[in-house]
């Protein structure tokens, strides 16, 4: 009898509740900020809070851009490139795209308004989507690099969903800055190890020609294959420390107007910097933040790039491992997450045609998801800057 007592206590409550429909909690009761709200989504009744549901970047709509939804136009797409078979030290960046998406869940919990930039990138009127991941084989680097180029190209070569509109200062109509005069969408790629930037720049080149690059990284990544990896084979010569060397050799980078930031790697010798110069890059070293500060760094970048179209590549290892430990080749002495975010906001007004964040290897992260959260927040600044500046120019008579 003793064991049945708890059940007897419960019985009256169960009977009282039965049949009273007005006591039922409606499925759609969860309201902002606990329900991800995008315009038109207010009728959703499935679990869709920041901590549940299907995880896309910032809970944006998932569009199968490379598959059955290929006719759906967009303005800015997040796209995963889960490739990590050209790393030199700790592998694992193939899990970067899913990790960064998990780190981005809370991005618009409070609405997504960016206070310093005075913009809400999620409410800018541009169509933002998560296109999922490019199919990438883990068995054949040459094939995988081609898959990444083709996947990125397929999206980049489309026409953007929204028109460019008029210049906010002169009210003149804006003209696209692409080679073919078409207003192309922008893609924010979630890596993957840094090698993916070679196929991404090949894709960028097909639409914009040789491009200025802003590259945040603790490493140069312009190393000659004989110096980085030793180049035992043609395939091994293309890796996450040499892809910029190859991009430069192929003429994908605009020499002299490209720049690295946060550099602090050791070198094989001073010749590495000579080779880096020849690859077309200026350099800002991580320690310069102690002398010229974030504003000095921003000024240097803007001076180098000017008003040219620019591609932005962010290695998570530009941030100090104290803030972002989950990466393939961590280097101490880096910038804080706050400093990198400030510098990125300083790019406001530049024509950033596309961007990436790479080398996020979630297996080495803390339980608090420091690195994937930092990666997502860094991309939030990039997205904010992008939504503020259309990829157009005023044609002067
Ligand atoms: Mn790198």
Automatic annotation (TrEMBL):
Keywords on record: Hydrolase, Manganese, Metal-binding, Signal
GO BP term, example: urea metabolic process
Record's signal peptide: 1-16
EC number(s) reported in the record: 3.5.3.11
Gene Ontology MF, one: metal ion binding
Gene3D superfamilies assigned: Ureohydrolase domain (3.40.800.10)
Domain of life the protein comes from: Eukaryota
Cofactor binding note from Swiss-Prot or TrEMBL: Binds 2 manganese ions per subunit.
Record-listed Mn(2+) binding positions: 194, 217, 219, 221, 315, 317
CDD domains: Agmatinase_PAH (cd11592)
Cofactor(s) required, per the database record: Mn(2+)
Catalytic activity: agmatine + H2O = urea + putrescine
Similarity remark: Belongs to the arginase family.
PANTHER family: AGMATINASE 1-RELATED, ARGINASE/AGMATINASE
Protein name, UniProt field: agmatinase
Native species: Coniophora puteana (strain RWD-64-598) (Brown rot fungus)
Species lineage: Eukaryota, Fungi, Dikarya, Basidiomycota, Agaricomycotina
